[in-house]
Automatic annotation (TrEMBL):
Species the sequence originates in: Salvia divinorum (Maria pastora)
Name the UniProt record assigns to this protein: Probable quinone oxidoreductase
Residue ranges of every copy of the Enoyl reductase (ER) domain listed in the record: 11-306
A GO term, aspect molecular function: oxidoreductase activity
InterPro entries, alphabetized: ADH-like_C, ADH-like_N, ER, GroES-like_sf, NAD(P)-bd_dom_sf, QOR-like, Quin_OxRdtase/zeta-crystal_CS
Amino acid sequence: MVKAIRIHQLGGPEALKWEDVEIGEPQEGEIRNQGVYKAPTMPFTPGMEAVGVVTAVGPGLTGRVVGDLVAYAGNPMGAYAEEQILPAEKVVPVPHSIHPVVAASILLKGMTTEFLVRRCFKVEPGHTVLVHAAAGGVGSLLCQWASALGATVIGTVSTKEKADQAKDDGCHHALLYEEDFVSRVNEITSGKGVDVVYDSVGKDTFEGSLACLKVRGYMVSFGQSSGAPDPIPLSALPPKSIFLTRPSMMQYTATRDELLRSASEVFTNAGAGVLRVRVNHTYPLSQAAQAHSDLENRRTSGSIVLIQDGF
């Protein structure tokens, strides 16, 4: 038996219960890992990102051995546990140069950033990019990576404090939401518009984002924190020949090779100091409910990492 956070019914942080669970032994093609949307059934264990040590491997498995430090991000759900059975093809090795806490806080956001700036739209020197929620988890990394690639970065944020953070992350122009960001972008780009917009906000920014694009610009909508954008007719795109995409990281790390390349890019850039994460809060795994409560009540900033006792 191992301990895990379990949810038996939907609710607030109080629904997160610290309980004993039976996970069994790894089968063919699986490992057992320690440390480190709507569920189909109740109860379930939340969490889709973890770093831990391999404690057992299934029969016939090669490439992973007990003691390896590995990470995963995405499916399957169940990371809020002392141990977890995972498909070996879903885990990636963590380099010795990367602290486990850093790896846990950067892998999912980092791989999201990687496919956005390197494959969904390939940012190159001379490009101008607009990043909404520039001080958020992915937004922060987008500013850092795009700036390192030689792009001019324009970011939108909600407060002056977040504007300062965005600038520290390489954002050249940090705009407050209280401003008319379309007019400001037009001013900054001398009326040309930006090459690409990375929009995780959705409804509140979507139409403005389209207006900020240059001819043949790329609109990358990868989230909707303010709600789903209103539908737009295809006839709205031809005036600028706009490219519009709604990508998912899962489709950009669908194969083993893609996953390994993406994770390697993230860890390489983190090790080189190109990418930095702010791990401002850590909690014992057993106190996940408190972590969620603090997050919900805006008592936290930066990344939060849940740590298993003794890890």
